[in-house]
Amino acid sequence: MIRVEHLTKRYGATTAIEDVSFEVPKGQVVGFLGPNGAGKSTTMRILTGSLGATEGRATVDGRDVFTDAREVKRRIGYLPEVPPLYPNMVVRDYVAFAGQLKGVKDPVAAAERAIARVGLAQVGHRIIEHLSKGYRQRVGLAQALVHDPEVLILDEPNSGLDPAQRVEIRDLLHDLVEDKRTIILSTHVLADIEAICRRVIIINKGRIVAEDDIERLGGEQRTVTVAVARGGDAALAAMRAVEGVSAVVDEGEGRLRLTTDGDRREHVANAAAPFGLLELSGRARLEEIYLRLTMGATP
Amino acid sequence: MRNILAIARRELSAYFATPVGWLALSAFLLITGFFFAALVSLYSMQSAEQAFSPYGAPDMNLNEYLVAPFFGNTAIILLFIVPALTMRLFAEDRKTRALELLLTSPITTTEIVLGKFVGAMGFIAVMLACTLHYVGVLFYLGDPDVGVVASSYLAMFLLSGAFVSVGLVTSSFTENQVVSLVLGFGMLLLLWVLGWAESASTGLTAEVLGFASLINRMEDLTKGLIHTRDVAYYLSFISFFLFATHQRVEAFRWS
Predict the structure, then answer these.
(1) Which of A228, B25, B158, B197 is the most buried (most CB within 10 A)?
(2) pLDDT at A298 over 50
(3) Which residue of B has its CA nearest to A153?
(4) Domain residue spans of chain A
(5) What pTM does this model have?
(6) What is the pLDDT of residues A223-271, one digit of tens each?
(7) Would you place residue A179 in the very low, low, confident or very high pLDDT band (cuts 50, 70, 90)?
(8) What is the pLDDT of residues A269-292, one digit of tens each?
(9) Does the beta carbon of A76 lie under 8 angstroms from any beta carbon of chain B?
(10) Going by CATH, does the domain composed of A219-295 fall within 3.30.70.100?
(11) What's the pLDDT score for residue A297?
């Protein structure tokens, strides 16, 4: 459905993305990850036709995003990091206006559907600038959905939201996944990616550093951190003796960081219990992969 | 066309959704109303004086003594008000990031530019339409020439078109509406005073300055003389600045 081939974007001497290539099959939900400034938004903007590329090619449903931009834009719903809203407009009018621009036959009816879809029916009559940030984000989503696009490109839909609003948007994204659309989702909330996407593309310093299923990317190596009341050499030795532990680092004050082969948390907990186990945490899988790929090594 | 009208409608309604539109409309009507009342009063005073003059009444007519100066004043008021109307057209969209909605919709850059132009012109049409009651008073009390009045309105509309096209391009260069306003007004004022510089110049310089001046092209139109060259001048002027805006908006895709 989406094919990106050797895409490069330079701003003068600065290279935003270089030789970026990936594919997203129809109906797949893909997490697009990377640190700030890695090139996620640039790639997304190129795909949506709001930015040109210096080199390379990108197609959506077989249509070139540069030469057949109009057709590509008809197929894409895009929510940028800052929702493209007209603050003085009423929600309903704004979404209908977006529908008109996207060539919907009955924009008013389409706007009502999109508004209902994102749970905005209660505030459809209100002026956008009077809405909370969470609701504005929903208006942005309604705008992206109004023409019922086959592809959704969402750039950090939950940035700047409070925890309750984040949960609302995450639930909404869960619902959207059910629609069987092709979705590229960029967010810094890795838990959301793990919950929603099976596959991730990780970009760092303008280059793709990983593109695969989360399961396959992780390999077998995990990190487990334990905190014990009575640390020291004995505790260190006990941890080293646990089956599957390949390295132990003493971080001081009874905190030990273990590198394990597979999920060994239960064994580690048993071994740490005699030393007064206070805390045990296995870092989320995706977070570990992400940090390894974007920071060079697990800190 | 559908997309142009959709954008134009949104721009037009945006003027009425914010105080800027209402303030501009009120200020325009207040000042044009003041000038109209002052001109009517002056005209009645002069015509009364002339009637009792021992040298006989000269050829005073409404068109020359009232209609032409009224539209001359209206043009100056537009020079001040139009930049305030156009300052937000692109600057606001860039600041709020709403421009991204336009750039990622299946519409062309030409449609975006024309939509905004038509929207602003729609508001100016409303403003000018609100002055029709002044003209109605003239027709009720006197006998102004319909042709002169009609061509004067055409002149106002073409001149406003030129102002809006300059305002559009200056608005596309910044996210700051105040900067957009100052740039737009500065450019228009410069083009306006070129006509004054013409009288202080000679030869080719005078010809070039006279040609570039926005004001010179209006004089004949407010006298009821519609020359193709004047209309073509304004249309070319508008086209040039709309094209410049188009190129600027296209450049957003590369920055």
Answers:
(1) A228
(2) no
(3) B104
(4) 2-217, 219-295
(5) 0.83
(6) 788 899 888 888 888 888 888 888 888 888 888 888 887 778 888 889 9
(7) confident
(8) 899 899 899 998 876 567 777 777
(9) yes
(10) yes
(11) 45
For residue A83, pLDDT over 70 is answered with: yes
Total domains, chain B: 1
Structure confidence at residue B142 (pLDDT): 80
| Cross-chain Cβ contact B253/A97 below 8 Å | no
Give the ipTM of the model, two decimals please: 0.85
- Closest residue in A to B108 (Cα–Cα): A70
From the CA of A143, how many Å to the nearest CA of chain B? 9
* Cβ A9 vs Cβ A53: under 8 Å: yes
Strands A76-79 and A151-155: parallel
Residue B185 structural domain: 2-252
Q: Are strands A55-60 and A2-11 parallel, antiparallel or unpaired?
A: antiparallel
Using an 8 Å CB-CB cutoff, list chain B residues near A74. Answer: 106
pLDDT tens-digit series, residues B146-157: 888 899 999 999
Quick one: pLDDT at residue B255?
A: 67
* Tokens describing residue A297: 């090594």
**Single-letter code of the amino acid located at A128:** I
Test B255 with A11 for CB contact under 8 angstroms.
yes
Q: What is the CA angle A58-A62-A63, rounded to 5?
A: 65
The CB-based long-range contact list for B246-253 (8 Å cut-off, 24+ gap) reads B246/B109, B246/B110, B246/B113, B248/B169, B248/B172, B248/B173, B249/B90, B249/B109, B249/B112, B249/B113, B249/B172, B250/B109, B252/A50, B252/B99, B252/B103, B253/A49, B253/A50, B253/A51, B253/A52, B253/B103
Q: Which residue of B has its CA nearest to A147?
A: B105
Domain at A2-217, CATH homologous superfamily? P-loop containing nucleotide triphosphate hydrolases (3.40.50.300)
